[in-house]
Amino acid sequence: VQLVESGGGLVQSGGSLKLSCEASGFPFSRDIMSWVRQVPGKELEWVACIFGDSSQTYYAESVQGRFTISRENAKNTLYLQLNDLKIEDTAMYYCAKPLYCNDPYPTRRGQGTQVTVST
After folding, report:
1. Who is most buried in 53, 72, 86, 106, counting CB within 10 A?
2. Residue 70: what are its φ and ψ, rounded to 5°?
3. What's the CA gap between 8 and 108, in Å, rounded?
């Protein structure tokens, strides 16, 4: 399993970013995928998940209505669109292949991409 995130960066409060995750080494289209995030010194926080066929998506209450998870199975790629970013969204964002949709501690994660939201 290999997961490689990209798309993070520095953005002003209220701005947007789109994260990508290229997956390989497993049958991507069959698997639930998720995004989790972590602030230094704090535990992982589950953000969103999506079923293999995109039929169902779920979000943490803290990001509901602002973030959108999606996937493009033909490209083995997972996305997370981040809109209306807030200071508290600053974190390292990880793409994950979880055991179940809202798995809060997925062990199969990428190296992460940093999102920093400034005032």
Report:
1. 106
2. -150, 170
3. 19
Distance linking the first and last C-alpha atoms of the chain? 37
- The contacts of residue 93 (CB under 8 Å, 6+ apart) are 5, 8, 19, 35, 36, 37, 47, 80, 112, 113, 114, 115
What is the separation of C-alpha 12 from the centre of its chain, rounded to a whole number of angstroms?
19
Compute the distance between CA of residue 50 and CA of residue 9 in angstroms, rounded to an integer.
23
Mean pLDDT computed over 80-87:
98
pLDDT of residue 66: 98
**What six digits make up the tokens of 29?**
């289209």
Structural tokens at position 97: 């292949």
- Predicted local distance difference test score (pLDDT) of residue 70: 98
What digits encode the pLDDT tens for the residues 15-31?
Answer: 999 999 999 999 999 99
Q: Which two tokens stand for residue 72?
A: 């493009």
- Cα distance between residue 81 and residue 92, in whole Å: 15
For residue 103, name the pLDDT band (cuts at 50, 70, 90).
Answer: very high
